[in-house]
Amino acid sequence: MVAGLSKRDRRAAVRLVQGSVATLAKSEPQTLLALKSEIELVTLQQLIERFQEMLGKDLPEARWQEFLKSNPFILSMAFSAPAIMIQENAYVGGKQFYGCNGKFTDFLMATASSGNLALVEIKKPHTDLLTKTAYRGADVFPPSQELSGAVYQVLDQQSQLHKNLLTLKDEIQRSDIHAHSIHHRHRRKNARVAAPSKVIRDLAPLK
């Protein structure tokens, strides 16, 4: 039925629903929830198709970062609790007097309930996570240089953020994140290395 509508009519239908959300929530709550679910399923299917198309191309990391920025709920699935994106390419500290050596994390995330922060470093889907040569026997493989480098990079970023958080959160006027939320004892819990392919593989069964 929608396929027979003109582009103008489709836009008018969307505006009609948008303008009637409050009324529909009161008079037709189940219908509104069903519509929401259908929209989410269609959006998710399109997202998976787009990801699969991107996998077939040798895209730079910046394109994947833009993809995740436009779809932040993908990153939130890496956490055991609801999480929100605070900033992409977030500066976490490290600049010296001459302005160099600043440290930036790909994504700064926070749990929605507590404001506990997490640093997310992404790598392209085809990045090797293990070396190609076994370290012991035939089945013990150490982490690749890319993976181990990313882990230490995030730990360094965490150290910088811990030292500079009070100043940085004042600059962005975020009172819902706190200095005590980052602690060196929990650095391996807060520091995450995420590959886009891993998150999308978790979504795939929903197709």
If you average the pLDDT, what whole number results?
79
Please provide the ordered H/E string of secondary-structure elements: HHHHHEEEHHEH
* Spatial arrangement of strands, main beta sheet: 1-2-3-4
The chain-level structural class is: alpha+beta
* Number of helices, counting only DSSP H or I runs of 4 residues or more: 8
The residue fraction in helices comes out at 40-55%
* Straight-line distance between termini: 23 Å
Q: Count of DSSP E strands?
A: 4
Q: How large a portion of the residues is in β-strands, by DSSP E?
A: 5-15%
Q: Cα-atom Rg, whole angstroms?
A: 21 Å
| Outline type | extended
Low-confidence stretches: 183-192, 196-207
Largest sheet: 4 strands, mixed
Summed up, what is this model?
The chain is of the alpha+beta class and 207 residues long. 48% of the residues lie in helices and 14% in strands.
